[in-house]
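Ops channel
N.P.: pipeline sanity check, posting one input/output pair.
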């Protein structure tokens, strides 16, 4: 029977693990923190100052102003916390975008009073946030923007607020999942139509009975113009989303799919100048995609990240075994394991330079160093030992960092297994294939490469199974590549 102490230890470990974010948020500089805090203070002032504008503010009014001020300040803080929890990669520019949108909306509410429909105020920013920062952040933003009104909300029909909350909720949920600009266009048509029908049903019938034709027609005009305005603002927002993507570094699903286009210049260059690396990349995409689907990760992210993980090999394609035709190996010519290790590390450093030059978003660029982590360059380390050279073990390790997310960890495992699976005998049994996969995965686990990735034991098992499934699928149509003893480095 399990000892109570070890059970308590396990429980404590699981609790601590569940409290940690899946990835440590990136640091924000002090000056950015100060700017963000000041904007939050301005939002709180804008949202609450009208309470003090009564002719003679009494003690109770000052107290209720203070309460509103603190409440809005805290909700802004929660919004930032939620956005950082959902997107550990979020940077200060993106946080500034979220709170600036809130500030703009609160200011427009002050200026227009109840003249402008809350639909047009809340829904378009929710679309931008859900696309760039995810559903949960968008829902948090929507709840603050829909419930915090500088004026008394009695000026606004409560049914209209409910309709706004529901429509903005739908946009937040769907916006986080939408994968193409065409679907975004559909959303910008169907949501205003839904809002129009809901307004007729929930507000029109209540305030302007059908029997009073004149009143009903006037109200229909208002509902129609509100929904039309919403549709126009949503369409303009969709047009501006690519600009937001480049200014604020947002990574929308549509942007991910655009980057995954194999006709992109960098990927075309890879296919022409380093065809072996390109083939290796395609096979890895298959392995990584299947494994990510199995554990419920971000498939679009890993598909695009895999495509760019080895672009750094473009700096010297023929130094990598998959691009050699078997006749000449520059590593043999220089016969210097330390120099060879530098060339291998350079494929990471140069890859990051390519990422910067091609303005690849940070979550995609992260795949470049993290797929190698701090792995040992075993082949050249052995050579250095054979030659009895003086060296540190760190000279033959990649500089890292080790994978910081499940997706980059999967890519590291796929990268390790690809060469071995490609070289495997066509008649090998499933058991032998699984054995090979397990050996590679376990070696990375023991080396501590998966420590920061948050992959559980169950997920690692599923990843191994999915690699096996892909291998079973491709073994019948597999191309035999010439393999040499050097094929262990990548
Ligand atoms: Fe690599
Ligand atoms: Fe690779």
């Amino acid at each position: 029977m399990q000892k109570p102490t070890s059970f308590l230890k396990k429980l404590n470990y699981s609790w601590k693990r569940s409290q940690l974010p899946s990835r440590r948020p990136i640091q924000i500089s002090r000056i950015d923190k100060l700017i963000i805090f000041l904007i939050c203070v301005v939002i709180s002032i804008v949202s609450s100052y009208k309470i003090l504008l009564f002719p003679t503010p009494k003690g109770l009014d000052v107290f209720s102003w203070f309460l509103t001020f603190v409440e809005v300040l805290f909700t802004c803080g929660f919004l930032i916390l939620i956005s950082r929890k959902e997107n550990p990669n979020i940077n200060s520019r993106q946080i500034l975008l979220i709170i600036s949108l809130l500030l703009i909306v609160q200011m427009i509410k002050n200026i227009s009073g109840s003249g402008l429909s809350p639909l047009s105020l809340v829904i378009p920013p929710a679309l931008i946030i859900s696309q760039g920062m995810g559903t949960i952040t968008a829902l948090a933003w929507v709840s603050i923007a829909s419930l915090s009104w500088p004026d008394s909300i009695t000026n606004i029909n409560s049914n209209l607020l409910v309709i706004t909350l529901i429509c903005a909720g739908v946009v937040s949920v769907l916006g986080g999942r939408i994968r193409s600009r065409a679907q975004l266009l559909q959303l910008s048509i169907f949501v205003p139509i839904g809002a129009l029908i809901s307004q007729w049903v929930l507000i029109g019938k209540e305030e302007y009975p059908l029997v009073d034709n004149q009143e009903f027609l006037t109200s229909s005009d208002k509902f129609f113009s509100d929904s039309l305005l919403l549709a126009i603002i949503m369409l303009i927002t969709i047009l501006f989303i690519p600009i937001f993507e480049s200014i604020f570094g947002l990574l929308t699903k549509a942007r991910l799919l655009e980057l995954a286009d194999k006709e992109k210049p960098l990927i075309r260059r890879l296919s022409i100048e380093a065809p072996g690396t390109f083939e290796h990349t395609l096979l890895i995409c298959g392995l990584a995609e299947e494994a990510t689907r199995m554990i419920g990760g971000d498939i679009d992210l890993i598909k695009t990240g895999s495509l760019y993980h080895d672009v750094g090999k473009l700096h010297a394609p023929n130094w990598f075994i998959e691009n050699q035709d078997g006749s000449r190996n520059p590593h043999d010519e220089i016969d210097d394991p330390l120099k060879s290790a530098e060339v291998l590390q350079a494929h990471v450093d140069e890859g990051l330079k390519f990422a910067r030059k091609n303005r690849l978003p940070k979550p995609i660029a992260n795949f470049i160093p993290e797929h190698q982590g701090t792995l040992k360059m075993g082949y050249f380390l052995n050579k250095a030992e054979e030659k009895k050279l003086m060296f540190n073990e760190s000279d033959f390790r990649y500089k890292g960092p080790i994978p910081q997310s499940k997706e980059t960890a999967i890519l590291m495992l796929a990268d390790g297994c690809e060469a071995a699976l490609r070289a495997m005998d066509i008649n090998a049994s499933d058991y032998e294939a699984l054995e090979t996969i397990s050996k590679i995965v376990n070696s990375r686990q023991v080396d501590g490469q998966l420590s920061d990735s948050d992959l559980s034991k169950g997920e690692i098992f599923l990843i191994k199974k999915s690699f096996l499934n892909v291998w079973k699928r491709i073994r019948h149509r597999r191309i035999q590549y010439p393999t040499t003893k050097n094929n262990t480095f990548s």
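N.P.: looks fine end to end. The pocket of fe (ii) ion (ligand 2) is lined by residues 280, 309-310, 415, 490 (CB under 6 Å).
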